[in-house]
Design a protein that fits this description.
With about 450 residues, this protein is mostly helical. It contains 17 helices and no strands. The chain has helices at about 20-40, 50-55, 60-70, 75-90, 100-115, 125-130, 130-165, 170-220, 220-230, 250-260, 265-275, 280-310, 330-335, 345-380, 385-410, 420-440, 450-459.
Length: about 450
């Protein structure tokens, strides 16, 4: 970056969480648990396996739209996006433009197909189109991606939580998984959606609070923007054609399009497209999802400029004040927002919500994949009650397995940064799955042999 390491001596602030921070943080966990308990014990229309996995396909637009946002915006995004802006300027913000064509493709091409089929497991499509073998292969890829990615999305932010609150990384990971396992296995898809709704609101409030207070404390909008302009961080149209460059107009638009599109065709996303009663409502959820995604990306980008303005003369990464760039936002919360009681706790709650929404979505979608693609195939005579018990058991088990993998991710993180590792997972496993959907939908002459070779080659 252009910032120099000379200037004021950097001192780690003597900050400790007090009762206001813990109240803000605890309220999110308690409310999420309460939602699960309500839908698990008191909701009358939540008694079948279909209700547990799909919410009875009768959900309203608002919770589904917010849940779509939450399932796509993890805590890694909330921590990592501002850091990218901090180091490289606002060029990465250009990626929001690709959400518009992606949404149109989904609304008028892909989602109508998914909605007509009314699938519970999205990968049932491959058995209809190709064969049982292809369905199994794709389902296994999806399961591997979901469980590993969930561990990654919880571990990375938990490192920041430890810096912010002093709570041990593995303790915070365990708390997040315990809360998610309880409310997801008790309340099913409805509890997941309404918890996502709550968590989405908390994330937006926390980002907005950071922006308002941070902008004021750092020096105001003109100062932040002028400094970013002076250091050449406001150039959106870097037309360099070298694709080895980290951020250019072309890498943001072309790379962003092919990076983001596969994430909209995962099991958890397709479940949400089919959770509303009509195709029109499904399209509305996509429209509001895009609006929310663009807003969050813009907020994160401005936070990145706030961070740059605050640390312009003394980069805490260079001075080794922090051990990882992901700790930059929590450090800012301690240094600057710590003067305002409750604000660091609100940031912690926002990060926790990003992790909670990712975990709960994974637990429910994993239960749907295993129950529909494997259990029903080998045990076709099971009753709805038996399937419901099995789905809940799978939800609990997948949560335990994913938590166990956090310890593996901790070892991986010693040599590989969390953010590029999660991007690699998307490309390695979601890319072939999306390619398989495209091959089946748009190339009628494709057959099982061609598909099998394609999947193996992509991996």
């Amino acid at each position: 970056m252009d910032a120099t390491t000379v200037g004021r001596e950097f001192q780690k602030p003597n900050f400790h969480f007090d009762w206001t921070e813990y109240i803000v943080f605890s309220l999110v966990l308690i409310t999420s648990l309460a939602i699960g308990i309500y839908y698990g014990f008191f909701e009358k229309n939540n008694k079948t396996n279909e209700d547990f996995l799909m919410g009875g396909r009768s959900m309203s637009v608002a919770p589904v739209a917010i849940s779509l946002i939450c399932s796509l915006v993890s805590a890694i995004t909330l921590l990592g996006k501002p850091v990218e802006i901090y180091f490289y300027g606002i060029q990465p913000t250009l990626i929001v433009l690709v959400l518009i064509p992606i949404t149109l493709i989904l609304m008028y091409i892909l989602v109508p197909i998914f909605f007509r089929l009314q699938l519970t497991s999205a990968y049932e499509y491959f058995e209809w189109r190709f064969s049982r073998r292809i369905r199994v292969i794709v389902s296994i890829f999806a399961l591997i991606h979901s469980i590993i990615y969930t561990s990654t999305c919880v571990y990375g932010p938990s490192l920041a939580v430890e810096q912010l609150s002093g709570i041990n990384t593995m303790v915070s990971c365990g708390a997040i998984f315990i809360v998610c396992i309880i409310y997801s296995s008790l309340g099913g898809f409805k509890a997941v959606l309404w918890s996502d709704f709550l968590q989405g609101v908390v994330m937006m409030v926390s980002l907005s609070a950071i922006i308002v207070v941070g902008t004021w404390e750092v020096g105001g909008i003109p100062y932040i923007w002028n400094l970013a302009t002076k250091t050449d961080r406001t150039n959106l149209f870097i037309m360099d054609t070298d694709f080895r460059s980290r951020y250019t107009f072309w890498t943001s638009i072309v790379g962003g399009f092919f990076t983001w599109l596969p994430t909209f065709t995962t099991q958890s996303q397709i479940q949400r497209y089919n959770a509303v009663p009509t195709l029109r409502e499904s399209r509305l959820t996509l429209f509001f999802n895009t609006c929310g995604m663009i807003l969050i990306m813009l907020l994160c980008s401005w936070i990145g400029l706030i961070l740059f303005a605050n640390y312009y003369n003394c980069d805490p990464v260079t001075t080794k004040t922090i051990t990882s760039s992901d700790q930059l936002l929590p450090l800012f919360a301690i240094e600057v927002l710590g003067r305002y009681p409750g604000l660091p706790g609100l940031l912690l709650a926002g990060l926790t919500c990003g992790s909670l929404s990712t975990v709960s979505s994974t637990l429910n979608s994993t239960a749907a994949i295993i129950t529909e693609d494997f259990v029903k195939y080998y045990k076709p005579d099971l009753s709805e009650k038996q399937l419901l018990i099995i789905s809940k058991t799978i939800s609990i088990t997948s949560g335990i397995v994913s938590f166990a993998l956090v310890f593996v991710i901790a070892e991986i993180n010693k040599t590989v940064n969390i953010s590029p590792f999660s991007t690699m997972l998307h490309g390695t496993l979601l890319g072939p799955i999306f390619g398989a959907f495209c091959l089946g939908m748009f190339f009628p002459i494709s057959n099982e042999l061609v598909k099998l070779k394609n999947v193996v080659a992509r991996i």
